[in-house]
Write a structure and sequence with these properties.
alpha/beta; 940 residues; 29 strands; 5-stranded parallel beta sheet; 19-stranded parallel beta sheet; Rossmann fold
């Protein structure tokens, strides 16, 4: 396997060495020269390490491995030295309200002495480290690292796709039946039209799901219906010329002189060979977007009913292949529980019902870890049934415990990891680092996206040189890319928002193995001990059964940078002050209660502190000592009623999370100019709103106004105008709904605005649709969530909202709502659609509108009966158009009417229920009637 963490702390160290050269640190010129020398040498070593990282680990000389590990360790030590200096010279000066002259002078003298001592110490440290760097550089030349090449493998590795290409149909489970029929259905679409266009299908999914096997079976079934056919495996680092020549070979168009042609000539040759033919071509295991752009030129969009199938692990590649309306993406899903069991038992016991009773529970546990991935199921089954005999129950249990921790040693398991590792090798260096960090979390963990991204930031995994954009937004892009590459399993909340992920046990096996090889994360789970210097510590099971001590009692704390705990860690608290360079501390869900956290406040290097859901009742004033803190999370602690005033000293704080029970912010929040995310702002004075204008980097916040005035509105709109990066705002009132037309008419939101929410019952109300939607809805290109309250909704408003290009979630409440027609071309991306009104007119949805809507809520007047709409006199059939929604899963409709129309309302309700029962999606529905002429109302 390749060297996983190739460059140690180089990415964050090099910018800090440049930082030391600034005049503000007042280093002597001789020391600056030493720093420059260090920087140049470390840059050179970083380049060498990257070369080492590109070579498979088993093909590296042992001396080179040792040299690489030594350089990485040296980079960590150097960064610790630099950080200690930067912390000591940062005076964190905060002017007091009425400082006494003598006290100020004393503080200044102490500060000067401390800085002078720190400069002297770093001068000595740089001299010492330069000597060590020179020794390492000498060994680099001796080991000839710069000219490293892979040692030739004793055995040429077999392409792992070959097994999938030559499977017997009788060996397949979960492929025949629903899956191949779904592919066949997609392929047949368009065959009944007069002009049979080229149809492209891309099958996308996680490595090992059986994409190649499925497509090969479909290919073999239907290739006889075409004039010619080709099945071409591609893989990583593919050569365009070879791919086109392989296609020509499969099509029977290969000629010996083809090797002399360039790419353009080969494409022309292929185009000519396919002219006027109905062809079937499969491009298997596609990784590169640019590769597809080139080879796709060969496939003209003729009218012969040709079919092109691609398989890929990368969603972005699949979307590129299927970019037109006549093309489809097939998302490969894991096997069902029944198919997983059938495949597993057939491999071990030769038939499905052959599992002995004593193996049933451990079988279920193993299959749960396999997660429906055929490759994992087959691999583990082959381990358990080696040498034509079934292993013992104890061996099954041992394998179960090893899965997900990178501890499995069987050759079959190693082959599975090699197949999965292709996705890892294809990652750029920064994404490899971010992926390895997931080994901090136990198997089956639900990993919150925001938490993970903030931890990456605190670890300095996001390069400083691209920090002109929000670091969090860059981190979000990293997260999305890992999902896009099928390495993380996305988890969506009830509103369809990607908010978390899980790591499949097979991928976790891989990254735990790589992490352990490079000493990237040390996991303590009751059965493991640390190896070498512990830099990142994951406490998953602190005390091993039968023992009374923890691993912490025998471990050096001096170099630990990160700690994450996943069980009560009270024993950790007494030793917190020993972790002198700790940057990340996650104590979430540990029952801390009233335990003394005194040692915590001396950890001046902390960037990330998670104390959420720990039972804290008070946050100490001493938190202000953590001057380098970037993330502070005390959410889930409802006992905390106020934040200490010292929190405003945390000038580097980017994220502050807490509960609404903490409803008063201290004065001076405007000092926190780095702030990007703030849980909740309770506005009880004009001062707070004005101070918000200093937090120009705010991206996400919730605000509640205790009262509203024109002066407050003006100040709020002015402060919002300073926030060019704002993405999500939630606004509410402490009491009755208030008009906030200045927000709708005077504020010009940034184009990056993604969500504007106004909490029901405590909402701010607009007299009409905000100007920034009325004037040009297309410019709000990222607005995906809109939840607002209007005085009145008219047809024109709905038409404008329907043109918002990225809108996924619409909640629109009003006092009055005229008759509304949801037009056929409206709301193309909306998945959740809600219209609420105290006095609604009828709502009708045209066919073609809301094609992706899964959840629909309507408050509507009585709809027009079909016969009445056509000029007839019938009144039995009522048509809201809801039945036309193809993606419908959940419906809530309230017919609002007067008591005099009760019978008509009942007919409308009954008719809608009948149509919903016949809907092909069998959606959940709730249909009711409300009397809006009465204060109490009545419900059916």
């Amino acid at each position: 396997m390749a060297m996983s963490m190739a460059t140690g702390a180089m990415g964050s160290l090099l910018p800090k060495l440049v930082e030391l050269l600034k005049d503000e640190y007042k280093l002597k010129e001789s020391i600056k020269e030493g720093v420059r020398s260090l920087e140049q040498e470390m840059k050179s070593m970083q380049a060498a390490l990257r070369k080492v990282g590109e070579v498979p680990r088993d093909q590296l000389d042992e001396q080179v491995k040792i040299w690489a590990a030594e350089v990485r360790e040296l980079s960590f030590k150097m960064e610790d030295i630099v950080d200690k200096f930067l912390v000591r010279v940062d005076d964190g000066f905060e002017p007091a309200a009425n400082p006494k002259k003598l006290k100020r002078l004393t503080k200044k003298m102490v500060g000067l002495f401390t800085k002078g001592k720190a400069r002297h110490e770093i001068a000595d440290a740089i001299k010492s480290i330069n000597k060590k760097v020179q020794e390492v550089a000498d060994r680099r030349a001796r080991y000839n690292v710069d000219n490293i090449v892979p040692r030739p493998s004793a055995v040429t590795p077999i392409d792992p796709r070959l097994g999938a290409l030559y499977k017997e149909v009788t060996d397949l489970v979960g492929i025949t039946g629903t899956r191949d029929q779904e592919i066949m259905k997609l392929l047949s679409e368009g065959d009944d039209t007069s002009k049979k266009k080229l149809k492209i299908i891309s099958v996308v999914g996680f490595g090992g799901l059986g994409k190649t096997t499925l497509v090969k079976m479909v290919y073999d079934k239907i290739k006889g219906d075409f004039d010619c056919a080709a099945f071409v495996p591609v893989g990583r680092n593919a050569d365009v010329k070879k791919i086109i020549m392989d296609i020509l070979l499969d099509l029977g168009l290969y000629e010996s002189q083809l090797a002399m042609l360039d790419e353009r000539q080969l494409i022309n040759k292929l185009q000519k060979g396919l002219e006027k033919k109905r062809y079937l071509i499969v491009i298997d295991d596609l990784w590169d977007e640019n590769l597809w752009k080139i080879i796709s030129w060969a496939f003209s969009n003729g009218n012969n009913g040709s079919r092109l199938i691609t398989t890929t692990r990368i969603v972005r590649v699949a979307k590129l292949c299927c970019s037109s309306i006549n093309e489809s993406i097939y998302q490969m899903e894991p096997l069902s529980d029944d198919d997983s069991k059938r495949l597993f038992y057939n491999r071990i016991f030769s038939h499905e019902s052959g599992c002995p009773h004593e193996f049933e529970q451990v079988s279920r546990d193993i299959l749960k870890k396999c997660g429906g991935v055929p490759l994992a199921i087959i691999t583990i089954a082959s381990v358990l049934a080696s040498d034509q005999k079934v292993n013992s129950h104890d061996e099954w249990k041992a394998l179960l415990e090893a899965i997900g921790h990178g501890l499995t040693k069987d050759p079959s398991m190693e082959e599975m990891l090699r197949i999965l590792s292709f996705s890892y090798y294809d990652l750029p260096c920064h994404l490899k680092t971010c992926l390895l960090y997931l080994s901090m979390f136990p198997e089956d963990s639900k990993i919150l996206k925001d938490q993970l991204v903030w931890m990456w930031i605190a670890e300095c995994f996001i390069p400083c040189e691209i920090a002109q954009s929000s670091l969090f937004q860059i981190g979000e892009n990293y997260f999305n890319e890992l999902v896009n590459r099928s390495l993380l399993q996305p988890l969506y909340d009830d509103f369809g928002t990607l908010h978390a992920c899980r790591v499949h046990d097979s991928v976790l096996d891989l990254i735990c193995l790589l992490s352990r090889e490079e000493n990237f994360v040390s996991v303590f789970n009751g059965s493991m001990s640390s190896q070498g210097n512990v830099r990142r510590l994951s406490l998953q099971k602190i005390i091993k059964e039968g023992y009374h001590t923890t691993p912490l009692e025998s471990m050096s704390m001096l170099q630990v940078r990160s700690i994450a705990t996943f069980e009560p860690a009270i024993s950790l608290l007494s030793r917190l002050s020993s972790f002198v360079v700790l940057r990340v501390l996650n104590l979430s869900t540990c029952a801390l209660g009233d335990h003394n956290l005194r040692g915590l406040w001396s950890l001046v290097h902390l960037r990330y502190l998670d104390l959420s859901h720990t039972g804290l009742c008070e946050l100490s004033e001493e938190v202000g000592k953590l001057r380098f803190l970037e993330v502070l999370d005390v959410s889930g602690n409802h006992g905390i009623e106020k934040l200490p005033s010292s929190v405003t000293k945390l000038r580097r704080l980017m994220c502050l999370l807490y509960e609404q029970s903490c409803n008063r912010l201290p004065g001076g929040i405007g000092n926190m100019t780095a702030m990007e995310e703030l849980s909740y702002i309770h506005v009880d004075s004009l001062r707070i709103v004005k101070e918000m204008g200093n937090m120009k980097r705010l991206r996400k916040f919730e605000i509640e106004f205790e009262h509203m005035s024109l002066e407050l509105q003006e100040a709020f709109v002015k402060s919002l105008g300073e926030m060019s990066n704002v993405q999500s705002i939630t606004i509410s009132m402490d009491g009755r709904c208030k008009i906030m037309d200045l927000l709708g008419e005077k504020w010009v939101p940034p184009q990056g605005l993604q969500a504007l929410k106004s909490n029901w019952n405590k909402a701010c109300r607009f007299s009409r649709l905000p100007a920034w939607i009325r004037e040009n809805p297309l410019q709000m290109s990222q607005l995906s969530w809109l939840q607002i309250d209007l005085k009145e909704v008219q047809q024109g408003d709905l038409g404008l909202l329907g043109r918002l290009p990225a809108l996924h979630h619409l909640d629109l409440e009003s006092l009055r709502q005229g008759p509304l027609l949801v037009e056929a071309d409206g709301f193309r991306c909306v998945t959740q659609f809600a219209l609420w009104s105290d006095s609604p007119g009828q709502v009708v949805i045209q066919p073609g509108a809301l094609p992706k809507a899964e959840q629909v809520t309507l408050y509507t007047g009585l709809p027009v009966a079909k016969e009445e709409a056509a000029g007839g006199n019938g009144g039995e059939l009522f048509d809201t158009g809801i039945v036309n929604l193809p993606s419908l899963q959940w419906v809530d409709v309230v017919f609002c009417t007067s008591l005099l129309q009760r019978q008509e309302a009942k007919k409308a309700s009954s008719a809608l229920k009948t149509t919903l029962r016949a809907h092909p999606n069998n959606p959940f529905y709730r249909v009711s009637v409300e009397d809006i002429s009465s204060d109490d109302g009545w419900w059916e």
